[in-house]
Amino acid sequence: MKITFLVLGKTDDKYIIEGITKYLGRLKHYIKFDLIEIPDLKNTKNLREDQQKAKEAELLQKALNPTDHIILLDEKGTEFTSRQFSEFLNKKMVSGIQNLVFIVGGPYGFDESIYKLAQGKISLSKLTFSHQMVRLFFIEQVYRGFTILKGEPYHHD
């Protein structure tokens, strides 16, 4: 199985980029993990919220394949402990999924068309994080999940 992490926009903060790079380097020992950044929309101040979500959906759909198993990072999604998330990843791996795609939406969330494509939703927290921080937190949690599955001493209950 491969994991693809699909995000809108680039990360500008150096400390976040350093953290992402650190965990991407660690993850390659466990699974093929691709971080795909879709360029930000231009001139969004002239768009209504629904128009912006629709345009973002078009960009996201271009990056997806029909066989992708899509999980949205969404505030209304299922919350997991780190152990539960590792079990979730394990179930997906043994189910025969070839490409597990996690998507972070834009500032207003997802267009309805993206919700219809998804097989699930996960919430990282009831707290709200910047889209930049979510990237680092999520990649670290994937890494943590694999260390839990391998019985390595990274995670402490």
Automatic annotation (TrEMBL):
One of its GO terms (molecular function) is rRNA (pseudouridine-N3-)-methyltransferase activity. It is found in: Cytoplasm. It holds the Pfam family SPOUT_MTase. One of its GO terms (cellular component) is cytoplasm. It comes from the Bacteria. S-adenosyl-L-methionine binds at L73, G105, L124, S125, K126, L127, T128, F129. The keyword S-adenosyl-L-methionine applies. The keyword RNA-binding does not apply. InterPro entries: Alpha/beta_knot_MTases, RlmH-like, tRNA_m1G_MTases_N. Coiled coil: none annotated. Keywords: Cytoplasm, Methyltransferase, rRNA processing, S-adenosyl-L-methionine, Transferase. It catalyses: pseudouridine(1915) in 23S rRNA + S-adenosyl-L-methionine = N(3)-methylpseudouridine(1915) in 23S rRNA + S-adenosyl-L-homocysteine + H(+). Its EC number is 2.1.1.177. NCBIfam families: PRK00103.2-4. Specifically methylates the pseudouridine at position 1915 (m3Psi1915) in 23S rRNA. Belongs to the RNA methyltransferase RlmH family. Homodimer. This is Ribosomal RNA large subunit methyltransferase H. It comes from Arcticibacter pallidicorallinus.
